[in-house]
Design brief:
It is a single chain. This protein has about 160 residues and is of the alpha+beta class. The chain is built from 2 helices and 6 strands. A hairpin with a 3-residue loop joins strand 1 and strand 2 (about 40-50).
């Protein structure tokens, strides 16, 4: 996508559009769909957890559980989508000249296992911005029940 090309913000946002906004690719792209957006405030996204995910081969054989660090990563990616989609909504284009890196996780809490067949609901709120950094508050749920939560700090760097 060129910098002059402004993708339409028609919800839901699907994987091809997500791949235009995030640098992540399979098997590390952990967001499948964006279903709600309040620019510069909040996003709701989904990750469909399939039994075919490569991490289930070793975590844990016979008792597959999505690693908690990947649940946190999924929330961070949803935060990145919030930032990129907000740029489209306010500036008409995403930030294609910058990358955002996860630099800190605070208060991570895991309260439910995420297993094959679950749909992970990722609700991420932008709590503040500081120069080239953004602080997000993320909650991951399955069937309305909290699975994890964390405060995530991401910093921008030139691409």
């Amino acid at each position: 996508m060129s910098q002059t090309e402004a993708p339409a913000l028609k919800l839901p946002i699907d994987v091809p559009m997500i791949q235009q906004l995030l640098p992540h690719r399979y098997p590390f792209l952990l967001v499948d769909r964006v279903v709600e957006l309040e620019p510069n405030k909040r996003v709701l996204a989904y990750k469909n957890v399939s039994a075919n995910e490569p991490f289930f081969q070793g975590h844990f054989p016979g008792h597959p559980v999505m690693p908690g660090v990947l649940v946190v990563e999924a929330m961070a990616q949803a935060g990145g989508l919030l930032t990129q989609l907000s740029a489209i909504a306010t500036e008409g284009r995403p930030s294609t000249d910058k990358l955002f890196y996860l630099v800190k996780v605070d208060g991570a809490k895991f309260s439910r296992m995420v297993v094959p067949g679950d749909r992970l609901e990722l609700e991420v709120t932008l709590t503040r911005t500081i120069r080239n950094m953004a602080v997000y508050s993320g909650v991951a749920r399955v069937d309305g029940e909290q699975a994890a939560c964390a405060e995530i700090l991401c910093a921008e760097a030139k691409a």
